[in-house]
Amino acid sequence: MSFENSGFILLMLATYGLWLLVRHREPQAVALLVVASLIFYGTNHWKLLPILTAYCVIDWGIALWLMVSRKPRGVLALGVAFNLFVLCFYKYTPLVVQTLMNSLGVHGLENYARGFDHWAIPYGISFYAFTGIAYMVDVYRKTTPPERSFVRYSLSAIFFPHLVAGPILRASEFLVYMHSGQMPQRGQAILEAFWLLARGYFKKMVIANRLATAIDPFFANITDPVTDGVWALPYVWLYALQIYFDFSAYTDIARGLGLLFGYRWPDNFNLPYLATSIADFWRRWHITLSRFLRDYLYIPLGGNRGGWLRTNFNLMITMLLGGLWHGASWSFLLWGGLHGLFLIMHKTWCAFALRDRLAALTGFKGALWKGFCIALTFHCVCLAWCFFRMTEFNQSLLCVRKWFVFDSSKMWNHAATDLSLWVAMVGYGSLVLMVALLNRQQDAIRERIDSLRYQFLHGAQWGLRAAMLLLAVLLSPGGQAPAFIYFQF
Description:
- By secondary structure, the chain is mainly alpha-helical.
- The chain has 3 domains: 6-186, no CATH class; 188-231 and 242-269 and 418-489, no CATH class; 274-410, no CATH class.
- The protein is 70% helix and 0% strand.
- The chain is built from 19 helices and no strands.
- It has helices at residues 6-22, 26-42, 49-68, 72-104, 110-114, 125-140, 150-158, 160-163, 190-220, 233-260, 278-284, 287-301, 307-325, 330-350, 353-359, 363-389, 393-404, 419-448, 451-474.
- Helix 3 (49-68) packs parallel to helix 6 and helix 18 (419-448) runs antiparallel to helix 19 (451-474).
- The longest helix has 33 residues, at 72-104.
């Protein structure tokens, strides 16, 4: 079930209405949210519920076992192994089998290989597997106590707003509020929640879906003569925008829903395409995954301890596994490897004194250098996106080739000149700027206690949010809306 699906809207309204009635009675509130989450995940996918339940049972049980075990490291290894084994089995079995068949030159098993055409990967499995691993490791490190109630732990693991595509939450950010007597009984920052919901739906329904409609035909026909001579780079730029608006929209909606139920979760994005380096990009993009890879993989591998060679090895392994986490294709591994290579190059560059002198520039020269760094970083990210977007290696290489080889008469064809795309993005930017200015004015007036103007601006805030939500519905391209990109992971 997707956030923009009418079934979800009905489920959300019914759940929230019932929650308002039972929120002061914790057992009923917990049961309500667990049932709603199971309905959300199980709709049209009921056969996947046993997998989700198994994750909850094992992770909850392992955490309790860790508290009494004399060999907690072995217990933790057992729990992590279960999470990774199930994840790898469902996600990578077709890839491994097909790769072995190709490498060994096995023929005549086409019918067997076609059996994977209907192989179902439980959607969101990467996210709830990583959430469970983080929980068990935190219990092992004694930074969080285990939750003794299975139902309450399950709610923290499968709560529908963050279940399928994150953010990847730590126990200190959510599970602690599941303890008896700790659950919120009212929403918080309702104005902010409504803004996140309106902004998220506008990003997804107006911008991301419209971008998908415009650029998908090009990528789907990258090897077809119809795209010969078309300049690929504008399409890659637009894909970079699409995946940002699509994924950040999901995060906005998830965080907004969390606030309605009284939970504040970390943001996943901080203007990533304004990053001045690849390291800066990963501090801004998919932040909760970046910190997971850092705290639960890079640092345990040794981090930056052990010299230049070992540090870069740890960094590359982390990014390769982070890439493979995204999907069952060697192109994802290559995507992660490219980011690992870029990070290693950045760390090497940081060791030169020239880098510090350039970073210290001010005024026009400083702005020029910063702009160059942003442009270079963005195009490095776009280069990697070519291997992320297309799972066939040859198609990805052809896309990169078309950055530089194209017909000048076709270079601005189709999507690059679609005025509706740019109008939608400019409109989004204008609305965001207006809300930011109203926020600033409202805070300043609150200090002077100008009641009348404060009430006017407060009403304008609500009005802008309602307008953005209404525009999201009215300006949506219509037709079958594509699912959130990160649902496949």
